[in-house]
Write a structure and sequence with these properties.
3-stranded mixed beta sheet, alpha+beta, 313 residues, 10 strands, 5-stranded mixed beta sheet, 10 helices, 2 domains
């Protein structure tokens, strides 16, 4: 059952959850996910996306499967006593007919996909959340928790070649190897990368490359994201949001391809504190950045075609 709170409340709940992780020295979007698959609903088999992928991916369960309380009952099972639920957020469309004396500011009505709103109505998307339980916290449901395979410590030549497919798929994008910096230049539509031999591991190289690739989706000829199409100050909130989109985009892509991730970031106090400050000042930042990252990854994967892969040098 959906918990009825305002969008503002839900933004704060999600942000507070992320902040608690950061305060414990954990960077949620850099934390390795379990290799058993993307978090998903066990009954519908539908994978979670965007901020939900991030929220559920932080958990330490062996199985990626989740159920609501009612879904567990529907399958003939129940939730274990004392089990802790996890939140999942979603958008709910509502409408209000302005100027209608029979409607008041408190009488917003839900709008389903099958409904057509009344003429002259105002439609507003509201963020909502509900609670789910990992399958390990249920009883009476026919399910065997699989054994956790050993994590992949680095990428093989074949995996590295596969990792390059998304990069090669974006029309117009150029990759320049060499030098001592990794960045994306919107005017040249070019990613500049140090040689792969300069990285501690091939997975670290791919992680960095995917970060820049996520930036490139904001180009005017792709998703036209304002953090890329317009010049931004590197101390601005717009810049911070674009960086977080790229960070999460890289994380989502690495997880999509099933690549094992080592600790790819120095958990410095300064870095943690910089994100803590930004998240405390803008409760919508993490939710909106995750949505932007998911859109970037969807765009990239939509362009990927089977083609000979080229191993980077």
């Amino acid at each position: 059952m959906c918990t009825k709170k305002t969008s503002s409340d839900v933004y704060q709940i999600v942000t507070d959850h992320i902040i608690r992780q950061l305060e414990q020295g954990i960077i949620p979007w850099k934390r390795p996910w379990r290799s058993l698959g993307t978090p998903r609903n066990f009954l519908t088999k539908k994978p979670y996306r965007g901020i939900n992928l991030l929220l559920l991916g932080m958990n330490e369960y062996a199985t990626p499967d989740y159920l609501t309380y009612k879904q567990a009952q529907q399958l003939g099972g129940h939730i274990k006593k004392g089990a802790k639920s996890q939140i999942v957020v979603f958008w709910q469309m509502r409408y209000y007919v302005a100027g209608n004396p029979d409607e008041t500011a408190k009488s917003w009505k839900n709008l389903t996909q099958q409904q057509t709103p009344p003429q002259g109505s105002k439609i507003v998307p509201l963020l909502r959340y509900y609670r789910v339980f990992n399958l390990e916290d249920t009883e009476g449901i026919d399910y065997t928790v699989p054994e956790m395979p050993e994590p992949t410590q680095d990428l093989s030549i074949d995996e590295l070649a596969q990792a390059m497919l998304p990069v090669q798929s974006l029309t117009g994008l150029t990759i320049v190897s060499g030098g001592n910096r990794a960045c994306y230049s919107p005017p040249q539509d070019t990613i500049y990368m140090p040689s792969i031999h300069h990285f501690h591991s091939t997975s670290a190289y791919v992680d960095t490359l995917y970060h820049e690739l996520s930036h490139s989706t904001g180009h005017q000829n792709r998703l036209a994201r304002i953090g890329i199409t317009e010049a931004v100050n590197n101390r601005s909130e717009r810049y911070a949001k674009e960086e977080l989109i790229a960070e999460l985009g890289s994380c989502f892509l690495m997880h999509h391809y099933g690549y094992g991730r080592k600790e790819l970031l120095d958990n410095s106090v300064a870095y943690l504190q910089s994100w803590l400050g930004r998240l405390r000042n803008d409760k919508k930042l993490i939710v909106e950045a995750a949505a932007g990252a998911q859109k970037a990854v969807d765009y990239i994967l939509d362009q990927v075609e089977e083609q000979p892969a080229v191993v980077p040098t």
